[in-house]
Amino acid sequence: MAQSKFIRLRCLHFCLLLWPCFTNAGEAMHLELEKSVCGIQEPFVFWLWSSMAGRPDSAHIGGLSNVEDISVQTVDGRTLRGYKLKALIAGRDSADAKKYLLVVQGNAMLADQILSNFTGFSSAGVDVYIFDYRGYGRSEGKRRLKAMVNDYGEIIDLLNSRPYSSRLFYGMSFGGIVLLNALQERQQGDSIVIDSTPSRLSGYGCPEAYDPVNNLPEDSSNFLFITGGQDRVVNPGMSRELVETAQQRGALVLRDPEMAHPFMDRNLLVRDRRMEAVSSFLLRPVAVGNE
């Protein structure tokens, strides 16, 4: 009995000795992923953008019956929270969806604010996933570009490990930057829409490796790029290099003179036209040629 107690005490002592190693390793991972890569202004800029995004409001999703509150744990222990808009088949939730859509929103948006715009996809039998960025809304962590890109790589790997046969992606504005970076070293999705995304970040002090134009695959025939003539956030000049390079590599391009930034179209008909273009491309049964 005394020997058993001695062994337990020795084990406890050993664990206490190792505990700092585990905690220091976790803290080191936080520091590595959450370090600024775009200069000293990066924390302030992300704070400003996240402030513009506002606070979570469950009222935005109150009318949706097929919503599931979800979360993922990142490699450095942060919890990212979001929503799954479950596929509907014959008007009921389906656990047998064959496709998923990952929506990566702009940097001044929260998941609950735009989720209801994607009910058309769930009605078409697609599971839709939208998360709050790290440090935004209900998600934990510090708002840093490097960490966000890594987060979405982890999310994509998680979704790809599930029995989906088709992968769809929609990245808008800053979300296009994150998505192009996260997909760079992974198998490309079946269909990808990049909407109102600038060509480069390096002009703002970020490494050129994060520039969207540097993360385009040589074969971009499974992409649709959208740019709006009324966009005052990312004007056509800011996205021209990216869009033209993508088109040269086989991407389909929609240049609409009436469109503003995503979800900022004042004309509801224009907003509907954008969503129709996105859904038509992502849900098309076969690949379409470049216009």
CATH fold type of the largest domain? Rossmann fold
Pattern of helices and strands: HHEEEEEHHEHEHEEHEH
Q: Looking at the structure, what is the overall shape?
A: globular
What gap, in angstroms, lies between the N and C termini? Answer: 81 Å
The main pleated sheet reads as:
8 strands, mixed
| CATH architecture grouping of the largest domain | 3-Layer(aba) Sandwich
Our count of helices gives 8
Global mean pLDDT: 89
Describe the structure in your own words.
The chain is α/β, with parallel strands linked by helices and 291 residues long. The protein folds into two domains: 1-33; 38-282, Alpha/Beta hydrolase fold, catalytic domain (Rossmann fold), CATH 3.40.50. Helices cover 37% and strands 18% of the residues. It is built from eight helices and ten strands. Helix 5 (145-160) crosses helix 6 (174-183). The radius of gyration is 21 Å and the shape is globular. Residues 14-19, 21-26 and 287-291 have low confidence and may be disordered.
Structure, briefly:
The protein has 291 residues and is of the alpha/beta class.
List the helices and strands and how they pair.
Layout: H1 2-33, H2 42-53, E1 67-73, E2 79-85, E3 88-89, E4 92-93, E5 99-104, H3 111-114, H4 119-123, E6 126-131, H5 145-160, E7 166-172, H6 174-183, E8 191-195, E9 223-228, H7 236-248, E10 252-256, H8 268-282
Parallel strand pairs: 5-6, 5-7, 7-8, 8-9, 9-10
Antiparallel strand pairs: 1-2, 2-6, 3-4
Helix pairs in contact: 5-6
